[in-house]
Amino acid sequence: MTQELIFALIGFAFATSITPGPNNMMLLASGVNFGFRRTLPHMLGISLGHAFMVFLVGIGLAKLLAQWHLVILALKVAAVLYMLWLAWKIANAAPPREGEDRGKPLSFVQAAAFQWVNPKAAAMALSAVTVYGGDGSPASITLVALTFCAVNLPSVAVWALAGQNLRLWLTSNARLRIFNRTMAVLLVLSLWPVLA
């Protein structure tokens, strides 16, 4: 891969990782509700899970799935249902009472598995492999996956940090309720590319 192509891949990875989407909306909400440190496994699950997805798509999963249209439809239906359930959970998250535990953020495994039902993550993986995968060799695909992982982690960390910083403003139960419902609506709106 040429130096120009690597810089283009880094730019693509940054632009797609830093912009709003299901992962980033969930990280913002997690930063608010759990803080940055407790959200670290969620962030790592996103970055490593997505890199693994890029690798698998690059070595041929996309070609295999293209032959099974019902599998793709089933994945889309599962993605929509799961994201609607997550949005409902976020919207209805009750503010904690004094001394009450706020629940748990997504674990590493849950966040990594979420990449497989996240339409933005799937589109990012397919685009990256198609445009930057070069000859499709395992070495080229591995380079694309590792580049995405290296760029993605600091990008998603920005959202968790922003959420943690919002915690001070969201000490009011009414503001926290409004925030959680707004995040839920944004998560549902991020489904538009799948539904359109």
Set down the secondary structure blueprint.
Elements: H1 3-18, H2 22-66, H3 69-91, H4 108-114, H5 119-132, H6 138-166, H7 173-189, H8 192-195
Could you describe the 3D structure shown?
It is a single chain. The chain is mostly helical. It has one domain. The protein has eight helices and no strands. The chain has helices spanning 3-18, 22-66, 69-91, 108-114, 119-132, 138-166, 173-189, 192-195. Helix 2 (22-66) packs antiparallel against helix 3 (69-91), helix 2 packs across helix 5 and helix 2 runs antiparallel to helix 6 (138-166). The two termini are 35 Å apart. The relative contact order is 0.24.
Quick description:
This protein has about 200 residues and is mostly helical.
Task: Name the quaternary structure.
Answer: single chain
How many strand units?
0
What can be said about the biggest beta sheet? none
Question: Helix and strand string, N-terminal first?
Answer: HHHHHHHH
SS class:
mainly alpha
What is the arithmetic mean of pLDDT?
Answer: 83
- The tally of helices reads 8
Q: State the distance separating the first and last CA atoms.
A: 35 Å
What is the domain tally? 1
Low-confidence stretches: none
Query: Radius of gyration in whole Å, from Cα?
Result: 17 Å
Overall spatial form: globular
Strand content: under 5%
Give the proportion of residues in helices. over 70%
